[in-house]
Amino acid sequence: MYIFMTGATGFLGGRLARELIAKGHTLSVLARSTEKVNAMFTETERRSIRVLQGDLTAPMLGADESFIESNKGKVDLVLHMAALVKFDESLRDELFETNLTGTKEALALAKSLACPRFFHVSTAYTLGANEVGGESLYDVNQPFLNPYEESKAHAERVVWEARHELDVSIFRPAIIVGDSKTGEADSKFTMYGYMRALELFKRKMERRGGLDESIRLIGSATGTSNLVPVDYVADVLLAAVEHAKPNTIYNVTNDTPPTNDVMLDYMKEALSFPHLTITETPASSLSKVEQSFNDMVKVFNPYLNRDITFHDPNTKQLLADAGYRPLQLDRHSLRRIVDAYYHTK
Ligand SMILES: NC(=O)c1ccc[n+]([C@@H]2O[C@H](COP(=O)([O-])OP(=O)(O)OC[C@H]3O[C@@H](n4cnc5c(N)ncnc54)[C@H](OP(=O)(O)O)[C@@H]3O)[C@@H](O)[C@H]2O)c1
Question: What does CATH list as the number for 2-173?
């Protein structure tokens, strides 16, 4: 197939692009920097890649008339996964511009190219404050935990509305972590942002000779972190290229997510930082030192206080149809993913 892809220079996109090429597909990729494409992909891989230099925030993503004319009727699938993955309220305008306007431009380009299919990579957290997530469209008129989730929920709606003009599929991964077999990851966000903050905090504590001090992290010990390894998310998308049903939503989530205290145990061991506990204590009861760490990770707190149940029958059926294995993320894989982050940098 000839696939136009956004986000190929990202954590998930890099992985998926390599696997698509290995399966014989040809890619046209939107990239802000051709140098990044050259650095990320081998010379052999680059023979299957054409680069459209552009930006999500540009009209038609920066595609000019000659690009549209020369590709019209030839693109089998637009796979849109580029996004700004940051949670800060101060970035609200930028998040909407990149994630919502960018999705509208990706759809406009798909239509100009007369492309019959559009895949949109969203997030499991478009469910807002709900505790149960199904594979249907969520209400955008509800409270969201941050502007990233809100921008992605609005983008889903725009994609869904386009289903009368082309076949659309929406994929909603939960928190993407490293490869389940090697632990390898190229991400700074979500769990990796948290692990990095923990590492910086440990260094700070070492400098002040305070590694024996007990530190409380605010969150629910029995709450769960809905983690999915990057190889699983890539498998779902690969399966979908051949077997997705039109106008369907796929939750790419974990039925048996690890509890926060288990994940913190792995991090403490990998980092040799033993006196950390996770607790629901009110922030006002924390010491100054504890407050300084909790401030560093406050954007992640909503993900540590919840225990969401996601349903994913569409994804399970898709994997079965395509002959791929269901999610396998046991304790050994989780430990490997945490260890790989702290020990291979
Ligand atoms: N990571 C997670 O835990 C997670 C969880 C659920 C859903 N998702 C979704 O999965 C997708 C991929 O996430 P990821 O973790 O792979 O993110 P990532 O590593 O940050 O990659 C983001 C990609 O989007 C591109 N991009 C960002 N802004 C752009 C712009 N203005 N114009 C053109 N390209 C732009 C980046 O290009 P540059 O290389 O130029 O920066 C990069 O290729 C996103 O849609 C995200 O919402 C991620």
Answer: 3.40.50.720
